[in-house]
Amino acid sequence: MSVNWMPREATHGRGHTSEPRAASAQNGRLDGRDACQPKSERAYDRYDGLTRFFHWSFAAVIIYTSVAGYALAHIAGGAVHDFLSRLNMSIATVLIVLFPLRVVWKFVRVEPRALHGTPGWQRSLATGIHNLIYVTIFAVLASGFLMVPNGYSFFGLIEIHTPFPKGALTDKLFTVHRASCALLAGLVALHVLAVIKHQLIARNDVLRRML
Prior knowledge:
single chain, mainly alpha, Fumarate Reductase Cytochrome B subunit, two-stranded antiparallel sheet, 6 helices, about 5% strand
């Protein structure tokens, strides 16, 4: 036998509202994403503004230059080829300037809290892949700059001088550039698949960390 110390009217009036609230609170505890979490607390789950700027700027440029670069291989020489080639090199030059800043900021920024419920081995794997992406970006930018003989025009504003004339060395650097671009494309695809897995399957709202 149980004793209910609440009047019947009060128990009846609360019965329908307490269950959703209890369920909501329980869900919030289970997935760590309580909708009522204070804004100051939610901020610790996101990357800072400068990191987000670097991330999306590099993502946009890498995707564009990858598509344009592979398209150039199938376009015969001419005005269109030369224009796209100069544009590619000019945009990549912007990344050459930003890349050291991004690397420095990576080591001094405050990292957001780890994703809720993510095993340690997955976090270690993600860190390793991110570091490999940084190394590959460096290889792409360095080889892309060094393989260009006789310099190039930066958005038609100034001439950028490169150190090597056309020859065997620039041909080898071109091979390194193509291989590193292919590796970078694969790593970016793997990164995107991991985001989709976390966002749609694990449902830990990983995209919000970079938005």
